[in-house]
Each structure stands twice: as structure tokens, then as C-alpha cells.
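User: Can you help me understand a structure? I only have the sequence.
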Amino acid sequence: MAIRVLLVDDQPLLRTGFRMILEAEQDIAVVGEAGDGVQALDQVRALQPDVVLMDIRMPRMDGVEATRQITGPERNGPAKVLVLTTFDLDEYVVEALRAGASGFLLKDAPAHELVQAIRVVADGEAMLAPSITRRLLDKYATHLPSGDEPVPDTLHTLTDREVEVLKLVARGLSNAEIAADLFVSETTVKTHVGHVLTKLGLRDRVQAAVYAYESGLVRPGAQ
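Assistant: Let's start by predicting it. Here is the structure, written out as C-alpha cells:
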């Protein structure tokens, strides 16, 4: 089954370029396009895409609000959102991740990175490179807790090993890297990550990383 993709951007030329790249892949099918967030919501309901390639800054409804409605509790379908941004530290990226986006990618990223990002997100993983994760969260360090605040009650539901895993997720490590760091199998790491997401009521690794910083479990700039 091909990965069904909806392109959302207010610039038709960019949508055309993305379509050309993606339609060259046998396992990806572009099922529709939208020029703003309002159209995107209509298209998601009508077309049921697997992945929405979402621009941030658009008229009528921006990508952050559209993402929130697509991935929120009232969501109608399996769509995951991959945010596109012109700047790698766009001020709206953090809000998009909090809203439920599964990751973000630069608009000028090489074609193979765009294709790989869509495959990763469609597979249920987060598309957020470790280096970008750290730079992004460090950028917004002034808006995040210092680490001196009380730890949220929900964090106490985690085991010591689950806390370790959450910290490594927040640093942007993949399951394989976490497994190597903790000397356990990758399957064990996947199990721990699943428990963390379930216990904290989070939908993916991106939200887990944001939670770790917002709760003060991990301090911006810490290794």
C-alpha cells in the first residue's frame, strides 16, 4: 500500500515541486493539495491521507492550528503531520510540535530527505534529527523551566529505567542509540518508550521530548 500524502502550502509552485519529487517514488501517492489550513482540514476529512506535509505560515488558518485539529482528540483519521519550515529554528516550530506534529523538515532539504521523512513519519516514528532537537530546545531555553520547579506528578508514574529512556529520547537519540547507551536490546527500548508514552498520555517521541524539557527533567543545553 502506498503512503497517501496531502500537500499543504500556500505557494502552488512549491506544491508542484513536492508533487514531482514524491510521485517519482513507487511507495508514495500524492492524493491532494491545499493552499491553507481550512482547505487542509477539509481535504484530510475527504481524502484520509497517511501524512500531511504542512506549511506553517498560511492565510485563513496557519499550520499550527491546522495541525492541532488534525492530530487532536477529535481527529478523524490516521493522518500524521510533517511540518515544513523555511528556517530551521522557526518560532512556530515548537508550537507545531506541541500541537501534535510528528516532526519538521526544512523546505530546502534534499529530495531524498523529504522522501525519507515521509516514510519515517508514516511508520509512526518522529522525524526530528538529534542535532536539530538540541538546537531547537536550546533556542527556546528561556521559555522552558530551569529545572528547579517541582516535578509533575505524572513523572512519578515512570520507573527509573523509563525515566532514563525519556531523558535519552529528549536528547534526540534513536531506539538503536538508546539501546547501545543502556546495553539493552532495541526491542526493550521500544517497549520502554511505549510505556512512557502511555503513562504520560503522549502521542509520540516528539511530544515526549518536549515534555521532558517542560517538566524540568532535562535542562536545555544539558548532555
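Now, to help you interpret it: Strands lie at 3-8, 28-34, 51-55, 80-85, 104-106. The domain at 153-215 is CATH 1.10.10.10 (Arc Repressor Mutant, subunit A). Let me know which part you'd like to focus on.
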